[in-house]
Amino acid sequence: MALGTVTASYELRFDTGRVCLDLLATTHPGERLGSVDALRAWITGAGLVPEGTPLAHADPSWLGAFRELRAHLAPLVRAPGSPSQGPALARVNDLARSAPPAPRAVPGTDGTLVRRLDGPPGRDALLGAVARDAVDLLTDPAARASLRRCEGDNCPIVYVDTSRGRRRRWCSSEVCGNRERVARHRRRTAALTRA
Prior knowledge:
By secondary structure, this protein is mostly helical. It has seven helices and four strands, in the order ααααββααββα.
């Protein structure tokens, strides 16, 4: 399933700066991984596999496993030091042990080298790639210091702020940032009409 064919009911976003945070973002504003097709689109969109990689072998167990990993990532990223961090960290570390899918460079149709996988990616290999990204994020002091929570109303998304001056306020300027600008404009307009 190509990313462009994803329906609006599970529109996916990949703007947090890390694969593990993109997985966390699939809970907002509602469940974005509501089907195996949505998960396949997320796996491809997140860059875990090259575009066009067949994922027909993905089944409902994959959906449960990715949601479970997501649930373990949440306390590690959103509530460091919480009591649930111990079991969550143990599970993420366990999943990170799986080797990620093996890439190969092969000639494309025009002769340039393109990335392909050695074979169909397994569920554990893909989970391992996301878990390894989380381990890398959580153990890198500079990356951890760049973690921000979106300032948008009721937006739980956590992202890596790589902006100049580290002044990014929203997970997405087009989504939460635009909502804030519209709300500010409405407040100003309402204040002027009352005056």
